[in-house]
Amino acid sequence: MELIQGPHPLLSQAVKPFDLETMHPAPVVLDMLDILKQEQGLGLSANQVGFPFQIFIMRTNKNKTHGDITTVINPVIKGMSNEKEKGLEGCLSYPDLFLKVNRPVSVIVEFDTLTSDMKSVIHVEEKFDGLDARVFLHEYDHLHGIQYMNRVSKLTYDIAVRKRKKLRRQAVG
Description:
The chain is of the alpha+beta class. It has helices spanning 26-39, 130-143, 154-172; strands at 43-45, 55-59, 69-80, 84-91, 94-104, 106-114, 121-129. Strands 1-2-3-6-7 form a 5-stranded antiparallel beta sheet. A two-stranded antiparallel sheet has the order 4-5. It is globular and about 50 Å long.
């Protein structure tokens, strides 16, 4: 399993539900955890590592099991706050590209997740606030083929790309 760098077709495609009847998520999650830790990210969706199914992992302030990692399988958004906030987002598939994205400040969701021993799967309903909501929504978007640059204007995106190029040139020379 390797991190896919954008642009890549898999990052722009919605992925299929994770079939819990035929696959256990633990092996996938363990591989994804290695990549997330190596890249020091806040979240990682399965399609970012070439696995086209609805599963992602995210660091949360809520869950201290597995060193603050939450596994999210086949998520469904039940509600979002009307209040939104612009916040800086990056993406492991687009290194050094940071964009201010407007997102709801809280979200209520249902999903399957692994138990703390990673042997069983349970269904949960959660409310995420602040940064946790932002990370959840960013990773949720990945599962539906939506990338964070799709949530900003072309001008905002072009400015961020120019900044990234400038930073990379300065780092090299």
